[in-house]
Amino acid sequence: TTTPSQKLDVVGNINCSGRLMSAHHSFHASFIDSVGNYALAQGSVFKPALVHFNYGSCYSTSTGRFTAAIKGVYCFKFSAFHNQSVSSMSRPAIYKNGSHWMMVGHFLYTSGNEVDSIINLDIGDYVDIRSSAGPLYFYSAVAHNQFCGHLVAAL
């Protein structure tokens, strides 16, 4: 038997045991509508549908999930502008495979909230954004909120 291997070629593709895959697995998406101030119920998945780019087609607007096609280390970020009181409870969180992974805060920060994390993902693992406590607040009239991520290193 042969041991699986991964190599980066000169044009930026990852060669995984003879199968070429793009090393450019990254996305950036925003939520936009005419509502303005928006409060997504606790536990509901943030599903931004305005996709700025989706290299590798790993982000789904219908599920709000990024699903890894390459085993590796990934970086993810959620950030949002809001018009809520800073005393409003909201804990934006990154979920991995449906389980809480990383959250921030207890109450909203002045004018915005964000969470980011570096995560090891196996092929088929997925990441999404939810509030682990209280609503997920964001201003939706313009794209002042985002969910984005990218492959840092293939493993």
Describe this structure in words.
This protein has about 160 residues and is mainly β. The chain has a five-stranded antiparallel β-sheet with strand order 6-4-15-9-12, with no helix packed on it. The protein has no helices and 15 strands. The protein is globular, with a radius of gyration of 17 Å. A hairpin with a 4-residue loop joins strand 1 and strand 2 (about 15).
How does the SSE layout of this entry go?
Blueprint: E1 6-8, E2 13-16, E3 19-22, E4 26-30, E5 37-40, E6 50-55, E7 59-60, E8 65-67, E9 72-81, E10 92-96, E11 99-103, E12 112-121, E13 126-131, E14 136-139, E15 145-154
In short:
The chain is mostly beta strands and 155 residues long. Helix content is 0%, strand content 52%.
The count of helical stretches stands at 0
Helix content: under 10%
How many beta-strand segments? 15
- Elements, N to C (H/E): EEEEEEEEEEEEEEE
Q: How big is the Rg?
A: 17 Å
Give the class from helix and strand content and strand pairing.
Answer: mainly beta
Identify the notable features of this structure and list them briefly.
mainly beta, 155 residues, 0% helix, 5-stranded antiparallel β-sheet
